[in-house]
Protein backbone atom coordinates (compact mmCIF):
# COMPACT_ATOMS: atom_id res chain seq x y z
CA UNK A 1 0.00 0.00 0.00
CA UNK A 2 2.93 2.37 0.48
CA UNK A 3 4.87 1.35 -2.62
CA UNK A 4 6.53 4.42 -4.12
CA UNK A 5 6.09 6.44 -0.92
CA UNK A 6 9.10 7.56 1.14
CA UNK A 7 9.46 6.24 4.67
CA UNK A 8 12.19 6.03 7.27
CA UNK A 9 13.96 3.13 8.87
CA UNK A 10 16.66 2.67 11.51
CA UNK A 11 19.75 0.83 10.27
CA UNK A 12 23.10 0.27 11.93
CA UNK A 13 25.82 2.25 10.21
CA UNK A 14 29.55 2.78 10.39
CA UNK A 15 31.84 5.10 8.50
CA UNK A 16 34.92 3.00 9.21
CA UNK A 17 36.66 1.11 12.00
CA UNK A 18 37.33 2.94 15.26
CA UNK A 19 40.21 5.42 14.66
CA UNK A 20 39.74 5.20 10.86
CA UNK A 21 36.55 7.10 10.03
CA UNK A 22 36.05 7.76 6.31
CA UNK A 23 32.86 9.83 6.28
CA UNK A 24 31.28 7.24 3.98
CA UNK A 25 28.30 5.51 5.64
CA UNK A 26 28.37 1.71 5.38
CA UNK A 27 25.36 -0.48 6.20
CA UNK A 28 24.93 -4.23 6.82
CA UNK A 29 21.56 -5.12 5.29
CA UNK A 30 19.33 -7.98 4.23
CA UNK A 31 17.13 -8.26 1.13
CA UNK A 32 14.38 -9.46 3.49
CA UNK A 33 14.00 -5.84 4.67
CA UNK A 34 11.52 -3.78 2.62
CA UNK A 35 13.85 -0.79 2.87
CA UNK A 36 16.57 -2.72 1.09
CA UNK A 37 14.30 -4.06 -1.65
CA UNK A 38 13.13 -0.48 -2.24
CA UNK A 39 16.72 0.81 -2.35
CA UNK A 40 17.65 -1.84 -4.90
CA UNK A 41 14.85 -0.47 -7.14
CA UNK A 42 15.42 3.24 -6.39
CA UNK A 43 18.78 3.89 -4.70
CA UNK A 44 18.13 7.53 -3.71
CA UNK A 45 18.16 7.96 0.06
CA UNK A 46 18.73 10.46 2.84
CA UNK A 47 20.35 9.97 6.21
CA UNK A 48 20.00 12.38 9.13
CA UNK A 49 22.42 12.23 12.06
CA UNK A 50 21.74 14.14 15.30
CA UNK A 51 24.41 16.04 17.21
CA UNK A 52 24.96 13.34 19.80
CA UNK A 53 28.31 14.62 21.05
CA UNK A 54 28.08 18.34 20.47
CA UNK A 55 29.02 20.82 23.20
CA UNK A 56 25.76 22.80 23.19
CA UNK A 57 23.44 19.87 23.79
CA UNK A 58 25.69 18.06 26.25
CA UNK A 59 26.51 21.22 28.21
CA UNK A 60 22.83 22.19 28.47
CA UNK A 61 21.62 18.60 29.01
CA UNK A 62 19.41 18.75 25.93
CA UNK A 63 18.21 15.69 24.05
CA UNK A 64 20.29 15.33 20.82
CA UNK A 65 17.04 15.11 18.83
CA UNK A 66 15.88 18.50 20.13
CA UNK A 67 15.65 21.00 17.22
CA UNK A 68 18.19 23.26 18.96
CA UNK A 69 20.87 20.59 18.45
CA UNK A 70 22.63 20.36 15.12
CA UNK A 71 21.71 17.73 12.53
CA UNK A 72 23.63 16.61 9.51
CA UNK A 73 21.67 15.31 6.53
CA UNK A 74 23.36 13.34 3.76
CA UNK A 75 21.63 12.47 0.51
CA UNK A 76 22.86 10.25 -2.25
CA UNK A 77 22.65 6.84 -3.81
CA UNK A 78 22.81 3.60 -1.89
CA UNK A 79 24.95 1.02 -3.68
CA UNK A 80 26.16 -2.49 -2.97
CA UNK A 81 29.73 -2.41 -1.70
CA UNK A 82 32.03 -3.72 -4.45
CA UNK A 83 34.07 -6.88 -3.70
CA UNK A 84 37.33 -4.97 -3.24
CA UNK A 85 35.76 -2.92 -0.39
CA UNK A 86 33.87 -5.70 1.42
CA UNK A 87 36.70 -6.47 3.86
CA UNK A 88 36.93 -2.80 4.86
CA UNK A 89 33.13 -2.61 5.24
CA UNK A 90 33.21 -5.73 7.40
CA UNK A 91 35.90 -4.27 9.67
CA UNK A 92 34.02 -0.98 9.81
CA UNK A 93 30.70 -2.54 10.81
CA UNK A 94 31.90 -5.36 13.06
CA UNK A 95 34.34 -3.17 15.02
CA UNK A 96 31.60 -0.69 15.91
CA UNK A 97 28.68 -3.13 16.17
CA UNK A 98 30.05 -6.54 17.28
CA UNK A 99 26.53 -7.92 17.76
CA UNK A 100 26.03 -8.20 13.99
CA UNK A 101 28.42 -11.19 13.96
CA UNK A 102 25.65 -13.11 15.75
CA UNK A 103 22.86 -12.20 13.35
CA UNK A 104 21.38 -15.25 11.55
CA UNK A 105 23.33 -16.05 8.37
CA UNK A 106 20.15 -17.25 6.64
CA UNK A 107 19.14 -13.60 6.14
CA UNK A 108 21.67 -13.19 3.30
CA UNK A 109 23.34 -10.09 4.79
CA UNK A 110 25.43 -7.88 2.54
CA UNK A 111 27.02 -4.44 2.67
CA UNK A 112 25.73 -1.24 1.12
CA UNK A 113 27.18 2.24 1.27
CA UNK A 114 25.92 5.70 0.46
CA UNK A 115 27.60 7.60 -2.36
CA UNK A 116 27.04 11.05 -0.90
CA UNK A 117 25.82 13.72 -3.32
CA UNK A 118 24.65 16.50 -0.96
CA UNK A 119 25.34 17.47 2.66
CA UNK A 120 23.31 19.90 4.74
CA UNK A 121 24.00 21.04 8.30
CA UNK A 122 21.07 22.36 10.28
CA UNK A 123 22.45 24.18 13.31
CA UNK A 124 19.24 25.71 14.67
CA UNK A 125 15.51 25.84 13.89
CA UNK A 126 15.20 25.94 10.11
CA UNK A 127 18.70 27.30 9.42
CA UNK A 128 20.37 25.00 6.85
CA UNK A 129 23.90 25.34 5.45
CA UNK A 130 25.14 23.31 2.49
CA UNK A 131 28.56 21.68 2.88
CA UNK A 132 30.72 20.68 -0.06
CA UNK A 133 31.01 16.89 -0.35
CA UNK A 134 34.79 17.23 -0.66
CA UNK A 135 34.92 18.71 2.84
UniProtKB/TrEMBL annotation:
Its main location: secreted. It is found in: Secreted. One of its GO terms (cellular component) is extracellular space. SUPFAM superfamilies: FMN-binding split barrel. Residues 2-135 form the CREG-like beta-barrel domain. Keywords: Glycoprotein, Secreted, Signal. Belongs to the CREG family. This is CREG2 protein.
